[in-house]
Amino acid sequence: MTVLGISGSMRKDGNTSLLVKTVLEQCEKAGIETEFISLAGKKINPCLGCEKCKENDWCIIQNDDWGAIMEKVLEAEVLVIGSPTYYYDVCGHVKNFIDRSYSLYHRRQLAGRKAAAVAVCSNKGGARTIQTLEGFLNSHEFSYLGWVRGKGYLEGDITKDTRALKKAREIGDKIVKLLKPQD
Ligand SMILES: Cc1cc2nc3c(=O)[nH]c(=O)nc-3n(C[C@H](O)[C@H](O)[C@H](O)COP(=O)(O)O)c2cc1C
Question: Which CATH superfamily is domain 3-179 in?
Fold first, then answer.
């Protein structure tokens, strides 16, 4: 699998999912393989701060879904990570997912992969959501392809944000250029 999209929203088919999928669809049109994962219904426990990952290079928490999803991130060439905005920042599930990636930070296991950030808010705070996602991506030394921020409140509202949909397709085009430069 080449491009992995993750939506951290507990709304499986909510605005963040739709915006992440818009990026993926653009890649699929160019024949690039994609996979989409929603964190809805997934169990992602918080980081314990135990620092045991410094010896293991992997998180010691085994009884949840974090490991399987992180394996997919490691396999992917490009990560498109999206979060809804909760209190001017990423939602809790996304924060837990990010915090647990500390276990891969020590040996920079994610370095060199490419990534884009996606955020949705209803009114304010989307910029900080993007900043938090950028903090995650920059810390891990991903090559950053850019961001898209959209607006919507109820599920599906994002389909009215034509500017955000356009930007999501542009990010998709950027990914296509990188993965299929001959096209
Ligand atoms: C707990 C909670 C906190 C929220 N905080 C904000 C906020 O700070 N700013 C904002 O503009 N919207 C906020 N919203 C609205 C969501 O960002 C908005 O509904 C978004 O479309 C949700 O995306 P989703 O459909 O992918 O879950 C909040 C919603 C919830 C449930």
Answer: Flavodoxin domain (3.40.50.360)
